[in-house]
Every structure is written in C-alpha cells, then in structure tokens.
Amino acid sequence: MKFYFTYILQCSDNSYYTGMTNDLERRLVQHNEGIKKDCYTFKRRPVVLKWHLQCTNSTEAIKVEKQIKGWSRRKKTALIEENWQDLIEFSKNYTEYGHPDKRNPSSTGSD
C-alpha cells in the first residue's frame, strides 16, 4: 500500500511550512538541501519536521494540507503540540463567538 503524508516544517526563521508528499524522508532532505531556489524553505533552512499525518490516498493528504494552510499560526502550533483544547478554541467562528482577545473572561465569582 502506498502512503501519502501531510507535514508541517518549522523553518529557521520560526515560520511554518505545510506540504504534502509520498516520501516524507526524501522530501525533508530536499527541503534542507535547497533543491529549488524559488521554494519557500530555500532561504529559511535548516527546516525541522514538527508534525505529520500519514494518509492512504493523495486526495486525503491534499485536503488536509489545504485545510492546514488556511489556519493561523497559533492553531498550527496547537496541532503540533497536541493541545486539543486550544485547537478547539482557535477553531471557533469569530462571527458567532467573537474574537478570543475580546471575549469576556469567565466569571471568577469575585464580583
């Protein structure tokens, strides 16, 4: 069975790069060797693999890659750190719940 991988790299400038491949080890080496000068990671080497997901088909891996690419940095960090509570919090719709920085803190009972 052939596998595909969606992955997140941390670059030397502390930014994240999300990609997908059918050979994770080879792709990581390519990123660090700087095969393509126009690649996002070329000037941000070395890169470190921070997270990956193994998929059984390319369609699933591409779908996950596109989803993660649309996430905020803090949501990606929550995924990498397996901080499920923050991942849920950062997934909430701002229109429905308001921006996290502007929400009222929970009542502490000290009115």
From TrEMBL:
<dbReference type="InterPro" id="IPR000305">
    <property type="entry name" value="GIY-YIG_endonuc"/>
</dbReference>
<dbReference type="InterPro" id="IPR050190">
    <property type="entry name" value="UPF0213_domain"/>
</dbReference>
<protein>
    <submittedName>
        <fullName>GIY-YIG nuclease family protein</fullName>
    </submittedName>
</protein>
<comment type="similarity">
    <text>Belongs to the UPF0213 family.</text>
</comment>
<dbReference type="Pfam" id="PF01541">
    <property type="entry name" value="GIY-YIG"/>
</dbReference>
<feature type="domain" description="GIY-YIG">
    <location>
        <begin position="2"/>
        <end position="78"/>
    </location>
</feature>
<dbReference type="InterPro" id="IPR035901">
    <property type="entry name" value="GIY-YIG_endonuc_sf"/>
</dbReference>
